[in-house]
Each structure stands twice: as C-alpha cells, then as structure tokens.
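Sample 1 of the test manifest.
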Amino acid sequence: MVVKVGIVGYGTIGKRVADAVRRMDGMELVGVVKQNPDYESEVAVSKGIRLYTYEDKVGKFEKARIKVSGTINELLRSIDVVIDATPDGVGAENKAKLYEPMKLRAIFQGGEEAEVAEVSFNALANYDMAVGKRFVRVVSCNTTALSRLISAFLIHGYRIRRVRAYIVRRGADPREFKKGPINDVVFNPATVPSHHGPDVMTVIPSVNIITMAVAVPTTMMHLHMVNMEFDGQISRGEAIKVLEETPRILLFNASSKKFESLAQVIEWARDIGRPRGDVFENAVIEDSITASQNELFLMQGVHQESIVVPENIDAVRAMMGLTDKWSSIRKTDEVLGLITTNKNYALA
Ligand code: NAD
C-alpha cells in the first residue's frame, strides 16, 4: 500500500517533512499547498514537487509563471492524510473548515493546542496511542526533545520522580528576518511553569515536570538544562548507556572531540552532509552528564527546525496502521540518515 500524503503549509517544518515523505517507500507526496509564488515555490517546483493553492491565488502563480497543479480542495480530495504545518492556530481552523468536512486524516504540529487532535504524539513515548487515529498532533520541538529524553529512561525501566528543565530558546529560525530578540533575554514566559512542562504531560501524563524558559538572540538551536530525579540511585555510566542506545538521542562527546558550543553541533551536521544541516536527534552534551545519588543533570541542544521531522513520518505510519513502533522508528531513521550505530531498535 502506498499512502498518499499532502502538506498544507510549506515553511520551516513543511518543506523538511515534504522532503522526508518523498524519501520514504510506502509514501507518496502528492503535493504541497503554497499561498505565495515566492522563491520557495520556485525551488519546490524545480525539485519536482507539485504545488497547490487557494482558488483566488491561482492567478498570482500564473502571473509569476510558477506552475500550479490544482486547488487545495483538489489536493485534499486525492490524499489519504494531510500534514498541516501552517503557523500556530491555522491548523485548527483548517481542521474545522476542511479536514473534518472532508473526513480526512490530519497530522498537526506543536503550535496547535492539544485539543486539536485525539493524541499528542512522540514516537518513543506513545506510538501505539496514535495507531488508527484520525487526528494526531506532533508536539513542538522542545516537547519532542524532553519527551524523548524522559522516554529513554522510562523505556529502560527507570522510575522518574520529577524533571526540572530550564530552556534557553532560540529567538527565531534562521529564515525569520522580522523576529527577535536581537539584543535581549526575553522571559518566555515569565510565569512558571512555562507551557513546555504541561505540554510534555500531554504525551507522558504520569511525569512530574516543571519548566522555565527564556528566549535569546540566536537562531541555531534551543538549549535545555535538565535535572531529573529518580527513585533510587543512578550513575553517570548508567545514564550514558541508556542515552547511547536510545534511537534519536546523540551524545556529543564534548571535550575530547572539541565540541564547545551548539554552533559546532550545527557545523558537524553540515560537515557530514545532513540536508540543510539538520540535526534530527537530541544533541546531548556528554560532558554535562553528571549524577549525584538519585539525581541526573545534563544539557541538550535541540535543532528546532528539524527535530520533529522523524515524528511526522512515524505519525503517518501509526495513523495508517502500517507497521509497529520500532519498525517505523528504525525505517525512518535509516532513510533520513540519523545515526543508527549502537542504537537498539528492540527496546520495550
Ligand atoms: P513557518 O512560518 O515557517 O511556515 C508556515 C507556512 O505556512 C508559511 O509558508 C506560511 O506562508 C504558510 N501558511 C500560512 N497560512 C496558510 C494557509 N492557510 N494555507 C497554507 N499555507 C499557509 O512555520 P513553521 O516554523 O514551519 O511552523 C509550523 C508549525 O510547526 C507550527 O505549529 C509551529 O509551532 C510548529 N513547529 C515549529 C518549529 C520551529 O522551530 N520552526 C519547531 C517545531 C514545531
């Protein structure tokens, strides 16, 4: 069976998910919905991606001599599942206006409220809960990274008493020239907890987590400083073993490999030839991993532009009932070129 996929919203997330869908066997990218005939539209067409738009915007594309293959309704009528990657809140509107009336399965992104979907999804944490569902929300970049980290220990049988995470958020994505801050540290928000903790609990309801966040003038990655408290002692060595074998988590061996900053993590991804320099994995800084009795401390980098891409692919497989959790995670990782060496794809 080949699952026909359409993407509405071709920005930071949408274009990456589009490329990922095109690389998966068993999936076909029928097309993407664009609103403007800009350079991204032109590049998409040059790559062989079919563009669809709103009826009243077809003329704009014709004027710009960019080929449009049809209207959004035509696209939605010809697919099995839509991946909505529009800005925060637009997905919910699209659900009410389009996807529900058309009885279409839809995947939403983390900028939507949890209520938009039947399940808030992270592949390591709750793949099975999305099996056969009609509406699934792939949680945000920060929530994805925290959910993976917590799941790694839960999957390995550890009992977590509480998680406290301090999030230094990038101010904007590299392409967002109108956003900031450019010279500030912004309380994001000033209230505690920030929304990230409660959002993790939409995926892992049993976890006791509180988060605080600020935004800073960088576009590269978010940085998490995480403190986890376990029922019982944990050693640094045990924690490293857990993280080493959990898929989608990479240990950056800091001092011996000369990683001193997140810029170098991004440079690593560029150097090894990752598309767009994407880091799909949690980038855990190995030197930061410190254990003290039943507490663990660590730092991780989160590449906001790409970390949710593998989860969008797994969400398609889960909703369509194509395969089981670990087969899906393994397949996605292999095709997208995540680091699979020493990873265990047969965990609990
Ligand atoms: P983006 O602004 O880069 O891209 C959104 C695209 O959707 C833009 O091209 C915009 O023109 C288009 N669009 C807007 N309204 C539309 C409509 N009605 N129909 C079709 N296209 C429309 O946004 P993004 O960063 O890719 O974010 C998309 C979603 O992913 C949001 O929910 C966001 O919270 C979430 N997310 C973003 C990041 C990130 O760091 N960028 C990380 C994880 C999750």
